[in-house]
Amino acid sequence: MTEVPARPAGLRERKKAKTRAAIREHALRLFQQQGYAATTVEQIADAAEVSPATFFRYFPTKEDVVLQDDFDIVTLAALEAQPPELSPVAAFRAAAMEAFNSMSEDDMARFAETTRLTLDVPEIRARALEELRRTTEVIAAAIARRTGRNADDFAVRNLAGAIIGVIMSATMPWQAEFGTDVAEIYHRIDQALTHLEAGLPL
Amino acid sequence: MTEVPARPAGLRERKKAKTRAAIREHALRLFQQQGYAATTVEQIADAAEVSPATFFRYFPTKEDVVLQDDFDIVTLAALEAQPPELSPVAAFRAAAMEAFNSMSEDDMARFAETTRLTLDVPEIRARALEELRRTTEVIAAAIARRTGRNADDFAVRNLAGAIIGVIMSATMPWQAEFGTDVAEIYHRIDQALTHLEAGLPL
DNA sequence: TCTAAATTGATAGTGTCTCTCGTATTAGAG
DNA sequence: CTCTAATACGAGAGACACTATCAATTTAGA
Predict the structure, then answer these.
(1) Which residue has better confidence, B132 or A5?
(2) Global confidence as pTM
C-alpha cells in the first residue's frame, strides 16, 4: 500500500523515492535498536548516506519519519466503495476491515513498528493529535458525501469526532497493555465501532 | 480556581508559588504581544527576573506554561456532585456548565488566552493530546464511579472516548473560525454533548 | 549538446533543553 | 539565636533539532 505507482516517470522521481525509503528504513531500524530519543538525525543521515540537511528536506521533523500513515488513505478509499444502505459507522467499520485485510506482510511489520513508536514515544504520541484532526476532517467529508449532507454540518462533524474518539480510546495505551499486535489493534477498533453503532450502551 | 489553598504553609512554598505565577504571567503577556514562537525562554526569564535554568525548573518545556488546565479538575469535581439519576453524558454536560459558571473574570481571561494559544500554536495543539488522554482516563473513572462499574470496563472507556471525541471535534478549529470567545466554546461543547446524548442522529 | 531547473552538501547559525557545580537562602534542631 | 542540612538558584557549557544561505552537481527538456 505504500508502493509507488509502478513507474514513477522520471529518473529523478525514482531517485527521490529511493532516498526517502532509505531514510525511513534506516531511521526505523535505529529507533528500534537504540530508542527514539537516543537516535540523532545525524546518525540517521549518516546511515542513509545523505546530509542532515537533506534529511529535513524529506521529512520536516524527526517525528514525521514515523507519522506516515497510509492506512487511513486506504481505509477512506474503501469507505467510498461501501454500499450506501450501510449506516456511516457500519460502513466505516467495514472499510477498516478491508483496509486491514489488504495489507501485505511488510506493511504489517512497518505498521506494527510505527504503531509501537506512536504509542510509546511521547513526542510522537503528541503529534498524533494533528493526524487525528486531519483524519477527522476527512472522515467528516466522507460521511457528508455518503449522506448527501454538507461537510460543515455540525451533526456530521460531531459523528466523525465520536468515531475518532472511540478509536482513540481503544488504541491508546491505558494500563500497561503492550498490545502492539496489529490484529489485536484492529480487533479493539472493531469492538469500539460496534459499541458506538449500538449507541454506546452501558 | 487556580488559587493556592489560602495558606501554603512555609515561606519557601509561597515564594515558589509567586515565582511560578510570575513566570506564567509574563510568558502569557509576551506570547500575546509577540507571538508564541517569537518569544524565547530567555525573554520570559528576563521579564520574570529569573535565570533560564530556573524557568525549566518550574516548567519542563516552554509549552507547559500554557498547558495548565485547572478547568477539567473543576468539571470533574462538579461531576461527582451530579444526581445519580442523570445519564453519564447528561451529568457531564451539567458539570461542564457549572464549571463554566464558577469561573471568575480573571479565570475567563486566562482561559480564553490559553485556549487561543492551544488552538493556534501547532506545538501546543500537539501536546494537547496528552491532556486529552489523561482527561479521558479521569472521565472514565468518574463514569465508572457513577455507574458502579469498573474503570477498566470497555464500554465505560469507549463512552469516555466518545465524549472526548465530540468535544474535540467541537473545539478544534475547523475552517477559519476564530471562536475564541469562552461563552461560544462552551456553547459548542454543550451542543456536542447534547447531540451525543441523543445518539448522534443525522 | 546546451540551458534551466532541481537536488544536494557544507557551513553557520538560533533556540530549546540538560547537566554540573558553586553559592545563597530557608527550615528545623539545639 | 545559631548551626546544620536541605533546597533553590545562577552561571556556564554543551547536545541536538531545525533553519537559512550559497555553491556545486545532476537531471530534464529542447
Answers:
(1) B132
(2) 0.80
Contact between the CB of B57 and strand D at under 7 Å:
yes
Distance B50 CA to D1 C1' (A): 32
Cell numbers representing residue B148 in the block? 458502579
Say yes or no for a CB contact (<8 Å) between A166 and B169: no
Residue of chain B nearest A155, judged by CA positions = B202
Q: How far apart, in Å, are the Cα atoms of A96 and each of A82, A121, A140, B14, B166?
A: 11, 25, 15, 54, 21
Is the CB of A170 inside 8 Å of chain B's CB atoms? yes
Give which of B195, B184, B57 is closest to B112, Cα–Cα: B184
Q: Which CATH number fits domain B71-197: 3.100.10.20, 1.20.1740.10, 1.10.357.10, 2.40.50.140?
A: 1.10.357.10
Would you list the DSSP string of B151-178? TT-HHHHHHHHHHHHHHHHHHS--SS--
Looking at chain A, the domain(s) classified CATH 1.10.357.10 span 71-197
- Residue A153: pLDDT above 70? yes
